[in-house]
Amino acid sequence: MTSTDHHALEGHYDRWLDEHAAELAGAGELSTSSGIPIKPLYTPLDLEQIGWSYERELGLPGEAPYTRGFSAAGYRSKLWKMEMYAGFGSAEDANRRYRYLIEQGSTGGVSMALDLPTQIGMDSDDPMARIEVGQMGVALSSFADVERVFDGIPLDRVGHIFTTANCIGPIAAAWFLVLAEKQGVDTSTFDVQIQNDPIKEYIARGTQFLPIEASVRLATDMLQHMNQVAPNWLPISVSGSHMKQAGSTCVQEAAFTICNGIAYVETCLAKGMRIDDFGENIELHFCTEMDFFEEVAKYRAVRAVWTQLVRERFGGTTEAAQHFRLHAATSGRPLTAQQPLNNISRITLQILAQILGGCEQTRTASFDEALGIPTEEAARTSIRANQIIAYESGVPATVDPLAGSYYVETLTHEFRRLIWEEIARVDEMGGAVEATRQGYFQQKLADGAYRDQVAVDSGEKVIVGVNRFQLDDETPVPVFTLNEDGINRQLDRLGRLRKERDNEAAEASLRRLAEVCATDENVMPAVLDCVRNYATTGEISQVWRSVFGEYRSEMSKL
Amino acid sequence: MNDDNPAIRAVVSKIGLDGHDRGAKVIARGLRDAGMEVIYTGLRRTPQELAEIVLQEDADVIGLSILSGAVVPLASAMQEALAARGLDDVLIVVGGIVPAATRADLAALGIDGAFGPGTAISDVVGFIQGRLGRRVDAGV
Q: Could you give phi then psi for residue A214, rounded to 5 degrees?
């Protein structure tokens, strides 16, 4: 803007403010979900005030700082991947559902939820596990279950497999490496992604079972090994979504995830790895909730901050090392059990925000999520919402269409500033592992969740169908029910496996694992042997518990 | 607070393997702000451990936060563990994902305090106070 223009606008804007003062004050003080104040109007003056520079903050798509995206042509050359997350019951049930999703046009490959016992390193026949077998995902007690899930699903045709193994990340990596071995499929013909982000389990998600340092060591051992033997696979998805769903603000979600990412990368660098060799295989995963413009700003800011870290802090020298995977999922948390069809609108807005934020891969929740495991109809409707945006709305036709919006650019700038501020604070505390151990993140999340609930209860925050626009009489929605027979079959099979496998070989490989864990050696070759010999998830995890000790959650008086 | 109207003692718990504790922590704080004495148990407690905590803390009510779907078996196991210690009069309240079909099963167990997503803190507070037949004035 020329200085004449600037002066003219400044005078004009001031007059406008005076003229409409009463009307503008009507809505009161508004702020984003993260508490960033929102002005009634944004103009070029706002960008001037923050010293905004197009070249410095945006550049062009496919170029640093990547605010406008990682590819030059955006969705014109390639639409986002449309993933669905599914998995429940026995291996056969999960196998059927995956085949169904592939037939329905889900292009994101197979995305696999594991049941809680599996995630916590317990077998289906563990007394503590029994009633939760298959409840929140598929039960994989041994490699035999993995073979059953992928029966008739050729790995190279699926293309992409994702699973939420975190504290058991190395076991999950071993399942797929051994599966490729046995099917005789080259690991370069498909990719496997393991969430493998234990730190946020201690902060928000709750499947931790070892001391945090041990979990970070196992996770980074896996990352290092996978980088060597299957360099196109994705060994880590540093996840903010669970922290957000547990109460963090949108800004904290972005910042805390990046802090956790720094902890993993720096552990890897200390093992002698170079970011140029694995930077492009790191995924940062976030979820999209209802504050539309804040979400758009978040994704744009995260690309700029992380790529700067790669260049300036991790010693990255290539473009590829900066091109991390930015993964967005719609959030299950804003979805309501009341009037569940309203969730289709919520989901659509969330998808749109993450697309306008330039995400290349998205995972979509289903409208019946607040009621239980999604039905097939609900899962299909969510794929359709993506397809409607992709093929009917015209949104993908130009790259980063919100760029230059005075509001979106002001917010994006503010996100960057706040994220850097938080990184400095966590560095000061000694990094993310230490901050987690001190309960810093956990406290922020609990504060946020309570603040949010109080705002909903008081009506200050409106949730349609919950605290306003309620229905007296809710029509029940069909809810998915679990196939109990499948679970009994799962237990029978596990019992047989324990008898029929080569128990001497299984035990020898577990002993070897225990030895390796006590040294600095990478644990993965030993874990692979355990899996090949059908040692179970629980047995491998038990070795870790006995070497590293067991996590115990603390009780507190309020 | 006076002796005629002692504070309600509440244990808020994560029972079973589910680690989603947002709701449990919110309710724990909400009950505290409503004037109750609250213990939050942390993650992954067994019904037996919880019954011991209830006994030790002389609690009037135990809240079970369950999002894993295993609502009925866990609530039922909790009831048995309490009964085994002679704590039949302790009020059990369930929160989390509570599908409609589950409600009937819970009611059959005699548990009618089941709160799904979208519940206001004041609803839970009101239910507990009503059942225990006392009101506690916040901030006393």
A: -65, -40
